[in-house]
Design goal:
The protein is an alpha/beta fold. The chain has two domains: 2-243, Aldolase class I (TIM Barrel, Alpha-Beta Barrel), CATH 3.20.20.70; 258-317, Arc Repressor Mutant, subunit A. Helices cover 34% and strands 22% of the residues. The chain has ten helices and 14 strands. The radius of gyration is 19 Å and the shape is globular. It starts with a strand and ends with a strand. Bound molecules: iron/sulfur cluster (SF4). Iron/sulfur cluster (SF4) is lined by residues 29, 31, 33-35, 38, 40, 82, 109. The site of iron/sulfur cluster (SF4) has 9 residues, from loops.
Length: 318
């Protein structure tokens, strides 16, 4: 298990990442999907086989220390690997809940949610944020590029069986002729949100592809359009909708040692592209310009402009 952040999350505030499925060397991720907008890169290991990935006492102690040092709003299972690949998810969630009262969230693509033991694991978390980007199998396959045999209808049905708090997360974007932000698709998505909410009350998170991706040409959806869509969903279903808004990252008052600083920045950028401000506010607003330049010169990270911001990400992500 690798700990990273806390990252500034528009959904969860300061969210301390717990990555319980690390990607094998030379892969940027391990996932059952290969979403066209994925911020982790396109050199992933695609699989659809959940396994027991062990989490050591030493790793749990590191997590405990980081919680104490950073006081996050959430501890979130996320990172280079789809968290539900690890059948120990529920066990680790229980262990975390014994060490702190801070809520435990999980960001999942929900591809294995049909599996009883995966659902039991998810139920140990306080908050499950499950991905639904498309209202039809055809669009699901075009956007999320799932491993063979993963059916959208099973995901929708199984989400309603969860016993814990649930949000549906939809990432809206346009890429050439592919989009899920047009009126027709939104209308169909609303039907699905309603279908889930009628059985299992939920929240909808509307995000967009604002961070850099390996696939050039992904266009994010403007805040005004996200707002309109959010209002439409809320008006037609009564469901609470939270949409992505550009905001200042919250400050974390913490000063790691110089050797820890470099390692932590790389671990963070392997899992999430960040702006300089997003990184420096993780460490009490320390000046990291020189360190970022050195890491670029050392070919460890690179930077790219996206949506008028400069994002840094690790070369090792793929
Ligand atoms: S589910 Fe997440 S990690 Fe997997 S490909 Fe999609 S965006 Fe990337």
């Amino acid at each position: 298990m690798k700990i990273y952040g806390p990252v500034p999350s528009w959904r969860l505030g300061n969210s301390l990442g717990a990555d319980i499925v690390e990607a094998p060397k030379s892969y940027c991720k391990i996932c059952s999907f290969d979403c066209v907008y994925c911020q982790l890169g396109d050199t992933g290991l695609k699989t659809n086989k959940p396994e027991q990935y062990p989490v050591s006492e030493k790793e749990l102690q590191i997590l405990k220390n980081r919680i104490k040092a950073t006081k996050p709003d959430y501890i979130t299972f996320s990172g280079q690997g789809e968290p539900t690949f690890n059948l120990n998810l529920g066990y680790v969630a229980k262990r975390i809940k014994k060490m702190t009262k801070i809520p435990v969230a999980v960001l999942t693509n929900a591809s294995f949610i049909k599996n009883d033991s995966v659902r039991q694991g998810l139920n140990q978390c306080d908050f499950v944020i499950a991905k639904i980007d498309a209202p039809s199998q055809e669009l699901f396959e075009a956007i999320n590029q799932p491993s063979p045999g993963i059916m959208l209808k099973d995901i929708i049905k199984s989400i309603t069986k969860l016993k814990t708090k649930v949000a549906i997360q939809t990432l809206l974007f346009t890429y050439k002729n592919l989009t899920n932000a047009d009126d027709k698709t939104i209308k169909q998505l609303i039907k699905i949100y309603k279908q889930i909410n009628d059985v299992k009350p939920t929240t909808v998170f509307l995000g967009t592809a604002y961070r850099p991706t390996d696939l050039r040409g992904i266009i994010s959806i403007k805040e005004q359009r996200l707002k309109e869509i959010a209002h439409k969903i809320n008006y037609e279903t009564g469901i609470e909708v939270i949409y992505y808004k550009k905001s200042e990252p919250l400050l974390i008052r913490r000063k790691p040692r110089p050797d820890e600083l470099e390692r932590e920045i790389i671990t963070l950028l392997e899992r999430r592209p960040c702006t300089e401000e997003e990184i420096s506010t993780r460490f009490g607003k320390v000046n990291i310009s020189l360190l970022l330049d050195e890491l670029i010169k050392g070919n460890i990270i690179e930077k790219r402009r996206q949506n008028n911001r400069i994002y840094y990400f690790a070369k090792s992500r793929g």
